[in-house]
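At this stage, I needed to go through a protein sequence along with its fold in token form, as given directly below:
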Amino acid sequence: MVYSVQEVLYQLEAYGIFDVVLPFLLIFAFVFAILNYTSLFGNNKGVSVIIAFVIGLMATRFKVFTDFYSELFPRLGIGVTILLAILILAGLFTTQFSKKKILPWVFLGVGGVIIISILYQTFDRLGWIYGTISSDIVGWIIIATLFLVILIVIVVGAGGPEDARLRDQGERDMGMWLPLGRNWNNRND
């Protein structure tokens, strides 16, 4: 009998792989990595394994934990996809100056907006947000964050002589993107 990939995934979901096993492995890996990195128990990895195993089992025992993970990670995947698409487009249409000076701030701002949106939607879906917080307030928070990012980009973009040299080099690299009639590649400095 032939099964499609989607049927196999549904079967794994029925076995509890996505609700229990994967969150357990994720928590186990995080806790074990943190314990190894901090060398809290020296070279004794057995103690780190036992502690990570117990914390992973205790965490996955409660439904609220698995519900949180099942709501958070699909949204996180969408957020990472958005950042990847912006990264690809920015790589195609920006200069070296923009990549070094402006782009990190843009990614910080967009990433912050995505994190706020993901956490708000996850908390709202789980019923952890009470009161008068509405989507209008979240929209204003996102607009304020974007405004701050634009302000930071403007301030960082107004740099010293080294930045002006990089900006001038970036304009030369743009070539055909500059207004018609200006040939920057043959310009004498």
